Amino acid sequence: MAYGKAHPATGLTIGVVLELEGPPPDRPQLDASLRPVAELLGTGPSDGGPWTGADGNAEAAPERGLTDVAHEALARPLEPHRWSCSTVAGLPGGTSALVWRADHRLLDGAGVVGVLAAWTGALGADALVPGAHGPGAHGPGAATASPARAEPWRARGALHRAVTDPLRAAWLCGTPLLERRRGSAAEADGGPSATLSYACAETDLGLLRGIARRHGTTVNDVYLAALSGALRAQPQLHGPDGQMRALVPVNVRGPGDAAVLRNRHIPLRIPLPVAEPDAGRRLALVAARTAGRARALRHPLVRAVFRSVPAVAGGWCFERYFDPGRATLLASNVRGPSSPLVVAGRRVLRILPLNFLPAGHRLSTVLATAQGRAVAGFTTTEPRSAAESFAAAWLEELRVLATAGPWGRVQAAGADATASPAASAR
């Protein structure tokens, strides 16, 4: 909330765009389907809460696709502390879309997963589990042990981790707070809002999981390594010192927070190896830099400390974490339900994630995985053609990683023919 007040021109909109089979539901059907969401958020149209029901219906223009709908959704202002849903009819192939948007002050990415699960009736599956946001979001089962992910303290037992994890978390959280702020005053004065562009890249989740298994890493590491490669040729997006540091929100919900939709995350800063020319080596470096960090931030002591931080201090911390002179890329990772999804009796065909752009930043990304698909969404102040170029470059990096052996050893030609991605940038 303090961040929103300090940057009134910065949109804090997050959400999802759902492509539905057939025409969109009518207003009564949509409102009925959204009642579990209102109950989950504890708000509804009758109690003065942030929900206004369906906030509009539109007919798609010729040649207007789902990414166009997402692009336009980020351009529309959303009032603070509110969430809404609109419909779009007449998309190519006779499909339709639902655009669900919310102010980030109401909930975080893992909270959006909870909303999606309640809305589609998938509450029993993957919603709001610890690890559904940020490093390790696809769990230790997505990777096997490797030198790149070696964590020697694991062999020393839980007692050792009970001591080292809080110390490591204190270092991870405290270092950004103690550094001298680099962001300029112009970035904090609440000037005119920038025009945002949106593009996305879509592929099979099995591709990322296959790369993670072969390299002994996680899906989140693959996502960040592909970002590192895609942004190597984009020096204008690097920090003032030529480096690129990603802010990766880590879901820190504990056992008692499973149903909490409010913000429960700590941003983790990960230096991206954009200068490393070898794709396999980039992935190994990313894995080494993320290893054990999310686990440390989820330590119960860390949660207890952050819950005791006064609101005024929390706002100051948030400003430090999102200082555009220290962190140049917001890179979220949200795991959605793996089961088929249905809204208002209509099958969900595709899901596109919407991510906000912090003040002073030029690019933010979000990886959303659901129904066996992985979609990377790119929000930027660059022209839309540049956003589409980022998306295509990210997919190309996945193709490179699919044929690169651990630590950059290239497989024999044809050895990984089955791993070639049937992917497309849209």
UniProtKB/TrEMBL annotation:
InterPro entries for this protein: O-acyltransferase_WSD1_C (IPR009721), O-acyltransferase_WSD1_N (IPR004255)
Coiled coil: none
Pfam families: WS_DGAT_C (PF06974), WS_DGAT_cat (PF03007)
Molecular function (Gene Ontology), one example: diacylglycerol O-acyltransferase activity
Limits of the O-acyltransferase WSD1-like N-terminal domain: 63-223
GO terms under biological process: triglyceride biosynthetic process
O-acyltransferase WSD1 C-terminal domain boundaries: 269-380
Transmembrane segments: none
Descriptive protein name: Uncharacterized protein
Organism: Streptomyces antimycoticus
